């Protein structure tokens, strides 16, 4: 049995990025641990959920974890920094040694074989995601023998879709599609593509558990769109999850490299 520790910045990040892998690992009788760094209190939502949002989101991520077969959920308890990282005292500016030490403690307690963080861009540059990347990298250095993977998406199709959306005026005027030219990970650098198609019911249930993040007054949220996709589109868009295997420092300084391009059937 393998023990995998998945580290995420906010409640709902696990559903969007790694829930299929988590469900597959649990179904294959591996031990799956979910670490959530923040309380998610600054998340965008509707007035219906705004009061007591941190408690709402804690309950949502616990429900998501049940659908995925997660063995243990660890809440680090940091305040949410908000989308731009500006919320005072938030996770994005928390001392790196403190955060990485907490993560390393979980990895050690669980004798984890694998720890999963985020790519260097933090996906789309969200400051809390970047902090997770930094902290998990440092925690992995403190945890010899634990393999490090970074969850990501292929950059090229996302950048193309965003550019098209901007060209057809489907995005706000202030939106800069050029930011997504630097987001996520170039396709050639992705080392592992995990087929999660048999576990899409669990992934859909995980997404649906985060009802507060599908709700917003006067705008449409990504999570709401995903949960409403018909099965064929859901499978096409979300049937694979993507990772970069990061070599230990002795093999190349901790930087992720291409070349493996493994596909997990």
- Please bin the fraction of helical residues: 25-40%
Helical/strand content category: alpha/beta
* Neighbour order of strands in the largest sheet: 3-2-1-4-5-7-6-8
The Cα radius of gyration reads 17 Å
Indicate the overall shape.
globular
Distance between the termini: 19 Å
- Mean of residue pLDDT values: 91
Explain what you see.
The structure is a single chain. The protein has 265 residues and is an alpha/beta fold. The chain has helices at residues 13-17, 19-27, 47-50, 53-68, 96-110, 122-125, 127-141, 155-167, 200-209, 222-227, 231-238, and strands at residues 3-8, 31-38, 72-78, 114-118, 147-152, 192-195, 240-246, 262-264. It has an 8-stranded mixed β-sheet, sandwiched between helices. Helix 4 (53-68) runs antiparallel to helix 9 (200-209) and helix 5 (96-110) crosses helix 7 (127-141). The radius of gyration is 17 Å and the shape is globular. It starts with a strand and ends with a strand. Residues 251-257 have low confidence and may be disordered.
């Amino acid at each position: 049995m393998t023990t995998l520790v998945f580290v995420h910045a906010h409640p709902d990040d696990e559903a969007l990025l790694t829930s299929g892998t988590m469900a597959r690992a649990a179904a294959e009788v591996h031990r799956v641990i979910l670490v959530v760094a923040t309380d998610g209190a600054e998340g965008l939502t509707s007035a219906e959920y705004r009061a007591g949002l941190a408690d709402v989101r804690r309950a949502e991520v616990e429900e998501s974890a049940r659908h995925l077969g997660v063995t243990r959920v660890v809440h680090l308890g940091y305040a949410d920094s908000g989308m731009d990282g500006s919320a005072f005292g938030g996770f994005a500016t928390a001392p790196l040694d403190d955060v990485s030490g907490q993560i390393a403690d979980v990895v050690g307690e669980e004798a984890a074989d694998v720890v999963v963080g985020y790519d260097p861009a933090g996906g789309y540059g969200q400051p809390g995601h970047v902090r997770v990347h930094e902290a998990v990298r440092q925690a992995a250095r403190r945890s010899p023998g634990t393999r490090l993977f970074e969850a990501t998406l292929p950059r090229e199709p996302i950048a193309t879709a965003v550019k098209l959306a901007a060209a057809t005026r489907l995005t706000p005027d202030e939106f800069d599609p050029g930011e997504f030219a630097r987001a996520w990970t170039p396709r050639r650098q992705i080392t592992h593509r995990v087929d999660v198609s048999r576990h899409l019911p669990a992934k859909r249930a995980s997404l649906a558990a985060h009802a507060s993040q599908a709700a917003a007054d006067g705008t449409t949220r990504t999570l709401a769109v995903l949960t409403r996709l018909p099965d064929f589109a859901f499978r096409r868009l979300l049937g694979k999850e993507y990772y970069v295997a990061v070599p230990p420092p002795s093999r190349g300084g901790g930087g992720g490299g291409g070349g493996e391009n493994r596909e997990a059937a």
